[in-house]
Amino acid sequence: MGQGGEGYARRVANDYGQHIVRQTLMYGAADLLHEDNRYLPYERAGAMPRLKYAVGSTFLARRDDGTRRLSYSRLGAIVATAFISREWQPRSTRGPEHAAASIGTVFGTEVGFNVAREFLPKVFHSH
Questions:
Q1: Which site from 16, 58, 65, 101 is most exposed, i.e. has the minimal number of CB atoms within 10 Å?
Q2: How many Cα atoms sit within 13 Å of 72 on the Cβ side?
């Protein structure tokens, strides 16, 4: 993507574009599927149960009846975005192996943010 300011601007635009596509797909599908993908803190004590909850929340969504099940909207949006974004990527990063790497990176980032939301709630608390 190049060096310097132009390369940086392209990487920022790429990341922003992926974010917009992913969020649009996820929220649209979540509405249709009645899934709530928001992160809500775990209400029980203990580091290991809280860690498991935070990691699980990356892959699970709350349903209308309060149960947590596999989040088809989140999973589908992440996978779809990885492949859609290959269309504007440089030719050298358009292959499925690069889409797979993007999927892994997004899931890893989501896990990290959920763990931080669980254990550092004041950092993510909005007024």
A1: 65
A2: 9
Residue 120 pLDDT: 92
Read off the pTM: 0.85
CB 40 within 8 A of CB 56: no
Cβ-contact 93, 29 below 8 angstroms = no
At 126 the pLDDT is 59
Write out the two tokens for 67: 């149960």
Low-confidence ranges of the chain (pLDDT < 70): 1-2, 125-127
Could you give the CA distance from residue 81 to residue 64 in angstroms, rounded to a whole number? 26
Residue in the block written with tokens 């550092």:
120
Q: How far apart are CA 51 and CA 47, in angstroms?
A: 6
Angstrom distance (rounded) from CA 61 to CA 74:
8
